[in-house]
Amino acid sequence: NLVQGRCAFTRRLRSVAERVLWHKSGDCYLLNSLKEWQLFSAADNSILCAGSHTARINKVLFTSASCDNADSNAQRVAVLLEDKTLCLFDFTGRLVTSADLTSLVGGSRPRDMQSSRMNEIAIKACQSETVRSV
Fold first, then answer.
1. DSSP label of 56
2. Considering just the CA atoms, what is the radius of gyration of the chain in Å?
3. What is the pTM for the complete model shown?
4. If we measure between CA atoms, which residue out of 106, 107, 104 comes closest to residue 121?
5. Closest to 100 (Cα-Cα) out of 62, 66, 132
6. C-alpha closest to that of 21 among 10, 7, 34, 37
7. How do the residues of the chain divide into helix, strand and coil, expressed in percent and rounded to 5?
8. Structure letter (DSSP) for residue 127
9. pLDDT tens for each residue of 59-94
10. CA 100 to CA 77: how far, in whole Å?
């Protein structure tokens, strides 16, 4: 509450968040720590979904990459891991698809990839027959 100078709500974290990422609609936000991420509703600060990984998370972003024709407006969370794996999750936390990006990333570090390039790869990953669908 900026008028009265009071905090609207607080969030107790299990670990230090490395990134806070707001969805462009402002309806939700994502907290990313070393090997896990959590998606929260901005309205009531409730957790919408979460994910944890064995490899370090290098980059997360919101994307509209659709892996099925039925849900072309679906929002996804794209997670790029240190082992050069790209995972796409829906807003319920279900793994939609994953792809090994070793051939695309090569010797460079995954965290150096620009968000626009990562989004482009996420969309292509949904259309590729080599991607492992879950």
1. P
2. 16
3. 0.75
4. 104
5. 132
6. 37
7. 15, 35, 45
8. H
9. 888 887 655 555 555 688 889 888 888 888 888 898
10. 16
